[in-house]
Amino acid sequence: MSYANIDGMLRHISDGKISTMESRPIEIKLLFHYWLNSTALTLLTRSRNFHCPWCQNHRLSFRHPRAKDEKNPSQKLLELAMRNKDEGFSAVFN
């Protein structure tokens, strides 16, 4: 789950913590007809709210974040996308 009861307060536990991140071809995205032959920096965060029996990424998305997991601020993601020459971002399965 994305939230946990910590000391009686509902807290978001995966904020900025990314399970998987890589440049992927735009042609495999739903909006494949935009910017053909380009890539998008694709992000998957840990912890989801829904449990779907057909989930292809259960191992990646349902693992609870660890305290030592590195946070990824938006500026760092933007710099990585620019370095990879990605044309956009894609947040998947969230």
| Alpha-carbon Rg, integer | 15 Å
Proportion of residues in extended strands: 25-35%
- Mean pLDDT, rounded to whole units? 75
* Gap from first CA to last CA: 11 Å
- How helical, in percent, are the residues? 10-25%
Q: Note the quaternary state here.
A: single chain
Largest sheet: 3 strands, mixed
The ordered string of helix (H) and strand (E) elements is EEEEHHE
Our count of domains comes out at: 1
Alpha-beta classification: alpha+beta
Number of helices: 2
Strand order of the largest sheet: 3-4-5
Low-confidence stretches: none
Instruction: Count every beta strand, where a strand is a DSSP E run of 2 or more residues.
Output: 5
Q: Please state the overall shape, judged from the principal axes of the Cα atoms.
A: flat
Give the topology, please.
Blueprint: E1 3-6, E2 9-12, E3 18-25, E4 39-45, H1 58-61, H2 74-84, E5 88-91
Describe this protein's structure.
16% of the residues lie in helices and 29% in strands. The N and C termini lie close together (11 Å). The protein is flat. It has one domain (3-91). A hairpin with a 2-residue loop joins strand 1 and strand 2 (9-12). Strands 3-4-5 form a 3-stranded mixed beta sheet, covered by helices on one side. By secondary structure, the protein is α+β, with helices and mostly antiparallel strands. The model has no long low-confidence stretch (mean pLDDT 75). It contains 2 helices and 5 strands.
